[in-house]
Structure to design on (747 residues):
C-alpha cells in the first residue's frame, strides 16, 4: 500500500448559492478608526498588516473616527455626496434607456459609487487614470459633461467616439481618463508606462491604473507590478474587489493568498485594503498613495473592498448564481447612505435636503438625457457617418482603406 | 557617407532620432547597459543616459504595455523584442490596444510606438529564434509593418517609423544583419562593406513607409519579395538567367500595390517569395491582389515559394529555408507554364 492516496483537484466554491442564506461571517471587518495611518515614506516591510486589514473612517453611528479622518470639509463632503447621487441617478436612467432599446448595452456602478467618485478628488488636473468600465465616477467627479457620456452611450451624431466603441467605454484626455479598452488588465500596465514617462520627463503628474478582482488573474497584472516595482513608477494601482467577476466569485482569482492587496507584498509595494463603501476612507487612502507617488516614493497598491449590487452588465442576471438578498447582507452598507448619515451627524445635511437634492439631480440627469437624445439614440435619429468606419484607423488613410471606403459608397 | 552593417544602421537610426527628439526612448531585454543581444543599442545608454535607454524585465507584454502608456503620455518609445518569436505575450497589447487606440478614442489618444524585432532564420536558431510572424501583424488593422532588406533602407525606414504617428512593427531579418545573405549558406557572406546598400549617410534621412523598390529591372517575370528573400531571389535570377524583375516590398502594410501591378502587368508572370510558412502567409494576400488587379495580363498561374508549413526545424535548417534553388525552380515553373 502506497503512503500516498490518489490526487484530487480543489475547486473553490463561494459560501452560499441561490436559495441559501447570505453569509458574510468570514469577512473580517475591523472597527472604524482602528487601523493606523503610517507616514507616506514608511518602509513597506513594516506595514504588511495593512494588506490584510480594512481601513475604515465612518463608524456605525455615522461619525468619522481615527487617524484617516479629518481631511474633508463639509463643502467637499457635500460635493462628494452629490457626485455619488448623480452617478446613481445617471445609472438608473441609462439602465432604463438600455431596456427601451436606446442603446445596446450598459454597465452600472450600484454600491461602488464611492470608489471612483472619492478617488478622483484625490488626484490633480493633469493626472491620468487608466480606468475599467466601472469607474464613470472619475468623469462625474471631474465635472465632465453628462451629456457627452450619454452621447457616447447612445452612439449618436455627437458621440465623441463616432460610434466606434461600445457604450460606457468613454475617453477624455482633458479629464485624465484614458480611452477604455473593454478587454481586461491590459490597461493596468499602460498606467505604469504613463507614470514612468512622467518620471522620465521629470514631470509632476502621476497615473492611476484600475483593475477588478477577477482580472488580477491576468498576466498583465503581474507585469504591471514588476514594472511598477522595478522602476518605482509614480502610479497608484487600484484593485476594485466587488466580490464578483460576472458569475465567478472572487475566490477563483484570489486563490490561497488571503487578500488581493497581499499580492503587492512580494513586490515590495505598499499594499492597503480599504472600505470601498466609505467615501472618507477611499479619499484618505487615495490621497496617501497620491502623496507617495508625488514624492517620488513609488507605487502603492490599494484594494477597495466593496460589493457589486447590480448585475455585471445588462447582459447578466445575478440571481442565477448568488442569493438575491446577498447585497442587503453586505456588511459595509451603502456608500451614499453612509455619507448622507455622516453629513447629517455633522449637522451639514438633513433628510429634507437630501430628498430635495435627489429630485434636483434626477431632473438634471433627465434634462441631459433629453439633450443627448435630441442628437439621436442607437437606432433612431442622428447617428455617426458610415465614413467614420474608415476614418482614424491611421493618422493618414492608406490607399487600401480608401478603396474599401469607396466600395462601401462613401 | 559611412559603411555600415545593418546592426550599425539600425543603431544609427535610433541614435539620430534620440539626438533630435528628447521624447524618443529605447528599452527592452538586455538593451541598456549591454546594448542588446545583437548589439543594436550598443552605446545608446552611455550617450543618452539611463532613463532614455534601459533594460526591461523579461516581460514582452510589459515592454509593449508600458510603451503604449508612455506614448499616451507623449513619448515616442522604440522598444526591442529580443526575437520576433518572443512577441506572442505582447500580442494582446499590440492588437487590442496599440492598433486601436487612435480609432476607438477618435484621436483623443494615439500610439506612436515602434516595436523592433529580429525575424527569420538562417542562424540555426531552431523553432524559437527563427520565426517570421509578419502575417500576424499585417492582419491587424491599425499597425504598420516594415521588413527592410539592407542597411540603407533599415536606417531610413526606422527613422520614418519612429517619426510615424501610429504603431509600427519593424522586423529586422537577423540573417541580414552582417551581410546580404543570398541563401548560399555554404559560401562566406559578402559583408555589407562591399555592397552598395551598405553606404549609409551618418545623419538624418528618411524613407517613406509604403513605397517598394525595384532591385532588378526585368521583363520576363515579376518576383515579389522582402527581407532576406530579396537577396535569395536576386541570386536565383542570376543563376537561372531568367530576366526577372525583383520587387523589394520594404513595407508590407501599407503596401505599394501600384509598383506590383505595374510590374506584373508588364511581365504577365509572378512569383511570390517569403520565408514564413505558406498557409495564410502574406504571400496569399499578394497572390489575391495580383489576381484581382492583373488577371487579364497573367500568362501563367502565380507561384509561391515559402517556408514549409511546419515549425522551423533545427538540423534541417537548409532544407526548410527557401533558398535560391527553390526560387529558381519556381521561376522556371512560372516561365514554362
Amino acid at each position: 500500500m502506497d503512503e500516498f492516496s490518489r490526487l484530487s483537484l480543489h475547486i473553490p466554491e463561494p459560501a452560499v448559492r441561490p436559495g441559501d442564506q447570505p453569509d458574510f461571517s468570514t469577512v473580517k471587518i475591523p472597527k472604524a478608526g482602528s487601523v493606523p495611518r503610517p507616514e507616506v515614506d514608511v518602509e513597506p516591510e513594516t506595514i504588511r498588516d495593512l494588506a490584510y486589514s480594512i481601513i475604515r473612517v465612518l463608524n456605525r453611528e455615522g461619525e468619522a473616527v481615527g487617524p484617516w479622518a479629518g481631511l474633508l470639509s463639509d463643502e467637499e463632503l457635500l460635493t462628494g455626496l452629490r457626485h455619488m447621487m448623480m452617478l446613481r441617478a445617471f445609472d438608473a436612467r441609462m439602465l432604463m434607456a438600455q431596456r427601451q432599446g436606446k442603446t445596446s448595452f450598459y454597465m452600472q456602478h450600484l454600491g461602488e459609487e464611492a470608489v471612483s467618485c472619492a478617488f478622483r478628488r484625490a488626484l490633480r488636473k493633469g493626472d491620468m487614470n487608466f480606468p475599467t468600465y466601472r469607474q464613470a465616477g472619475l468623469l462625474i467627479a471631474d465635472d465632465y459633461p453628462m451629456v457627452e457620456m450619454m452621447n457616447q452611450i447612445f452612439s449618436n451624431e455627437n458621440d465623441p467616439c463616432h460610434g466606434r466603441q461600445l457604450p460606457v467605454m468613454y475617453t477624455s484626455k482633458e479629464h485624465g481618463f484614458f480611452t477604455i479598452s473593454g478587454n481586461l488588465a491590459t490597461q493596468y500596465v499602460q498606467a505604469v508606462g504613463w507614470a514612468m514617462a512622467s518620471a522620465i520627463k521629470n514631470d509632476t503628474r502621476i497615473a492611476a491604473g484600475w483593475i477588478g478582482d477577477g482580472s488580477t488573474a491576468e498576466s498583465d497584472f503581474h507585469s504591471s507590478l514588476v514594472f511598477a516595482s522595478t522602476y518605482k513608477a509614480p502610479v497608484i494601482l487600484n484593485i476594485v474587489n466587488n466580490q464578483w467577476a460576472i458569475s465567478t466569485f472572487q475566490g477563483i482569482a484570489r486563490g490561497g493568498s488571503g487578500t488581493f492587496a497581499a499580492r503587492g507584498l512580494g513586490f515590495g509595494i505598499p499594499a492597503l485594503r480599504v472600505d470601498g463603501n466609505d467615501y472618507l476612507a477611499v479619499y484618505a487612502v487615495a490621497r496617501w498613495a497620491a502623496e507617495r507617488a508625488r514624492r517620488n516614493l513609488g507605487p502603492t497598491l490599494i484594494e477597495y473592498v466593496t460589493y457589486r449590487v447590480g448585475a455585471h452588465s445588462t447582459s447578466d442576471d445575478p440571481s442565477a448564481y448568488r442569493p438575491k438578498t446577498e447585497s442587503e447582507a453586505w456588511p459595509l452598507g451603502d456608500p451614499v447612505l453612509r455619507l448622507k448619515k455622516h453629513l447629517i451627524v455633522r449637522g451639514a445635511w438633513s433628510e429634507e435636503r437630501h430628498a430635495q437634492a435627489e429630485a434636483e439631480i434626477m431632473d438634471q440627469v433627465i434634462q441631459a438625457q433629453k439633450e443627448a437624445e435630441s442628437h439621436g439614440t442607437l437606432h433612431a435619429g442622428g447617428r455617426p457617418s458610415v465614413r467614420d468606419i474608415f476614418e482614424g484607423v491611421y493618422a493618414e488613410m492608406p490607399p487600401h482603406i480608401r478603396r474599401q471606403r469607396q466600395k462601401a459608397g462613401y | 557617407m559611412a559603411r555600415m552593417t545593418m546592426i550599425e544602421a539600425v543603431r544609427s537610426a535610433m541614435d539620430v532620432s534620440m539626438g533630435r527628439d528628447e521624447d524618443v526612448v529605447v528599452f527592452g531585454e538586455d538593451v541598456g547597459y549591454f546594448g542588446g543581444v545583437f548589439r543594436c543599442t550598443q552605446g545608446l545608454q552611455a550617450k543618452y543616459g539611463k532613463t532614455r535607454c534601459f533594460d526591461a524585465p523579461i516581460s514582452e507584454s510589459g515592454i509593449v504595455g508600458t510603451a503604449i502608456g508612455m506614448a499616451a503620455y507623449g513619448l515616442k518609445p522604440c522598444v526591442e523584442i529580443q526575437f520576433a518569436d518572443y512577441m506572442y505575450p505582447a500580442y494582446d497589447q499590440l492588437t487590442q490596444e496599440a492598433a486601436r487606440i487612435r480609432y476607438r478614442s477618435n484621436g483623443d489618444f494615439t500610439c506612436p510606438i515602434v516595436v523592433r524585432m529580429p525575424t527569420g532564420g538562417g542562424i540555426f536558431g531552431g523553432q524559437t529564434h527563427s520565426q517570421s510572424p509578419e502575417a500576424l501583424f499585417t492582419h491587424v488593422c491599425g499597425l504598420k509593418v516594415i521588413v527592410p532588406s539592407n542597411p540603407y533602407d533599415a536606417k531610413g525606414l526606422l527613422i520614418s517609423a519612429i517619426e510615424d504617428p501610429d504603431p509600427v512593427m519593424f522586423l529586422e531579418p537577423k540573417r541580414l544583419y552582417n551581410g546580404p545573405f543570398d541563401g548560399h549558406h555554404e559560401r562566406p557572406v559578402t559583408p555589407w562593406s562591399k555592397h552598395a546598400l551598405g553606404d549609409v549617410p551618418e545623419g538624418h534621412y528618411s524613407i517613406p513607409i509604403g513605397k517598394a523598390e525595384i532591385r532588378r529591372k526585368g521583363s520576363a517575370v515579376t518576383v515579389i519579395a522582402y527581407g532576406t528573400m530579396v537577396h535569395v531571389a536576386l541570386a536565383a535570377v542570376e543563376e537561372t538567367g531568367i530576366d526577372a524583375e525583383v520587387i523589394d516590398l520594404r513595407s508590407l502594410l501599407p503596401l505599394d500595390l501600384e509598383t506590383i501591378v505595374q510590374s506584373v502587368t508588364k511581365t504577365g508572370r509572378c512569383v511570390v517569395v517569403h520565408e514564413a510558412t505558406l498557409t495564410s502567409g502574406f504571400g496569399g494576400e499578394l497572390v489575391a491582389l495580383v489576381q484581382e488587379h492583373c488577371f487579364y495580363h497573367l500568362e501563367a498561374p502565380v507561384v509561391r515559394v515559402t517556408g514549409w508549413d511546419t515549425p522551423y526545424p533545427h538540423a534541417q535548417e537548409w532544407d526548410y529555408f527557401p533558398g535560391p534553388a527553390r526560387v529558381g525552380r519556381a521561376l522556371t515553373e512560372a516561365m514554362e507554364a
Remarks:
- Residues 74-99 of chain A form the longest helix (26 residues).
- Chain A touches chain B through 48 residues (CB under 8 Å).
- The CA atoms of residues 101 and 378 of chain A lie 8 Å apart.
